[in-house]
Specification:
Order of helices and strands: EHEHEEEEEEE
Strand order of the largest sheet: 1-7-6-2-3
Number of helices: 2
Number of strands: 9
């Protein structure tokens, strides 16, 4: 399940209903958040529980038809067509990852959360582990 942040909801309302300009970013970035985060924090854009250090960086996801499948039917769903692979955790782990978010900037700890969701199951990332979403595993729903 995914949800839009307050920031993104307000941006879309202002764009669609108030005629405020909105330029879609050319790239988006996936960020990971630990089990210390909460859905309420992600809704309001709190970034304090994003993974940091130990070779962590957000992963770029290009906005193009080649990277996302066509929306299925009328449900507003798309999935990644390529794997989203994070760097290997070194020199120590990242802890337990429970949430992912689509961001508008590459730099950890900055920018706006657009869409966020909870992983199907938390994943502990130890030293030398690599976290990835295989093709088709990162689902975004606009509903």
């Amino acid at each position: 399940m995914t949800a839009m942040s307050n920031y993104f909801e307000n941006t879309l309302v202002n764009h669609v209903f108030r005629g405020t300009s909105f330029s879609a970013p050319s790239n988006l970035y996936v960020a990971l958040f630990t089990s210390s985060a909460s859905l309420a924090e992600l809704e309001t854009g709190t970034l304090t529980n994003e993974v940091s250090g130990n070779a962590y960086n957000r992963v770029t996801i290009a906005c193009s038809t080649g990277n996302w499948d066509a929306t299925s039917g009328t449900d507003g769903t798309t999935k990644n067509t390529n794997a989203i692979i994070f760097p290997t955790a070194t020199p120590s782990g990242w802890g337990t990852i429970q949430y992912a978010a689509v961001m508008d900037t590459a730099t950890p700890g900055t920018g706006n959360i657009l869409i966020y969701g909870e992983l199907g199951a938390p994943k502990t990332i130890n030293v030398s582990d690599t976290f990835a979403f295989n093709a088709g595993d990162f689902t975004v729903v606009f509903a």
